[in-house]
Known about the structure:
Elements: H1 9-14, E1 25-31, E2 39-45, E3 52-61, H2 66-72, E4 81-82, E5 86-94, E6 106-109, H3 118-121, H4 131-136, E7 147-149, E8 169-173, E9 177-179, H5 195-206, E10 215-218, H6 222-233, E11 239-243, H7 246-255, E12 259-262, H8 268-275, E13 280-285, H9 290-298, E14 300-308, H10 320-323, E15 329-332, H11 340-352, E16 362-366, H12 370-379, E17 384-388
Parallel strand pairs: 10-11, 10-13, 11-12, 13-14, 14-15, 16-17
Antiparallel strand pairs: 1-2, 1-4, 2-7, 3-5, 3-8, 3-17, 5-6, 6-9
Helix pairs in contact: 5-6
One zinc ion binds near residues 113, 116, 117, 119 and 120.
Amino acid sequence: MTKGESISEREFRMYNIDLKANKMETIAGVIKIKGEKFEFEKTKMSDLLADEVLIKIVAAGICSKEMAMVDQQIHNPDFSILWTHEGGGIVEKVGNNVKHLQQGDHVVLTFGSCGKCERCTQGHPAYCKVREQLNFSDSRHHGTHNHADLTTGKKFHQDGYSPSLLATHVIAHQNNTIKVPNDAPLEILGPLGFEVQNGAGAVINSLKVSRGKSIVISGADVTGLSAVLAAVACSAGTIAVVDADSERLNFAMELGATHTIDSWEQNVSEELKNIQPQGFDFGLDITGRSDIINSLLSSLKPLAEMGLLGVSTEPLEIDMNSFVSRGLILKEIVGGDSIPSEFLPQLVNMYLHGEFPFDKLITKYNLADINKAIKDCENGSSIKPVLLI
Length: 389
Ligand SMILES: [Zn+2]
Ligand SMILES: [Zn+2]
C-alpha cells in the first residue's frame, strides 16, 4: 500500500499486526481536516510501555459526545486526530508491569484513573484526582501520543478520553483496560465502558436504588435508557421516564419503564404528581436542563436523592422553593461512580443472565458505514451505534 491509496474495509478487518518484526504498524480511522469524512490509513504506534497493553480492537461504539468533540477541535490548527473511546477487544501483548491481564483476554476500555490517589483507593476512581489529565489531555498517561502518521511521523491526537479506539490495534494503559468474561459477545460490550456504565452505575452504585423504590429519569438517550434497564434490574417499583421524543418513550416502556411523560406535550410536574402523589424516592437527570431538573426536584419525597448526569453550557438555575426545607440531596455523578474492574464484569454477568438486556440499545454497523453511523447517532435514529472492526 502506498500513501494516498484508500484502505478497504476488508483490508482493515483482515489486518494483523506483525509483532515478530516489531513494526507496531496499525490501521486507524482519522479525520485530518475539519468537516471532512473519516479516512483509514496506516499509522505507526509507539512501543509498549511497562504499564500498557496492546489490544486488537473488535468493535468501537460511537459516543454522542463524539461530534461535540470534533467541534471543540475547530480552533486546533493541528486537526489530525483519532476517534472514539468506547470499545472492546482482545489482548495481544502486555507490558512488563501488567499483572492482571494476559494475551487472549477479552477486555473493555473505560475511563482512566491513577489508582493511587485518595479517591481511587477509597473506591471512587471516576473522581480520580488527576481525572482531567488522564482523560482529556488527548494523549496517553505519560503525555506522549501512541499513533503517528506512517510517512510524516506527525503525531495523532486522541479524541478526549484515553485511548482512542478507531483502529485495528491500540495501546491502552492497564488502568483503562478491564477484563470481561470470555463467553459474552465482545462486539457489543464496548459501550459498557462509558455511556451504559454512566447510566447503570448512577442507579446501582450511586443512588443505590432498591426493590420497590420509585425513580424518575429525564432523558431517554443511551445513558437514560441504561438507567431504566438498571432500575428494572434493581426491581424498582415505579420507573417514570421523561423525554420529548414519543418513540423513545415507547421504547422505554418496552424496556420496563412503568410510566412515561412527553415533556413536549405534557406538564411534567403535574404528571409526575399524578403518577407518584407521595413523591419519588429518586430522580436522575440526563438532560442538563434547568426546567426539567426543577420539575423532577418538585416531584421528589423529602430526603430523596437526585443525580445529575447532564452537561450544559447554561448555568443551572434551581427553584429554591421546591428545594428548601425538604432535605433533598442533589449530586453530580461521574462514570456511574463505579469501580470498573468490578462493575463491568458485573454488568456482563447480569446481561448473560438476562437481567440487563443492554444489547437492545445497540445497532451494529460495518466499518464502511462509519459516516452513516455518526449521522444516525446525531439524528437519534440509532441509540448506540457500534462499528464492527
Ligand atoms: Zn463517550
Ligand atoms: Zn486517582
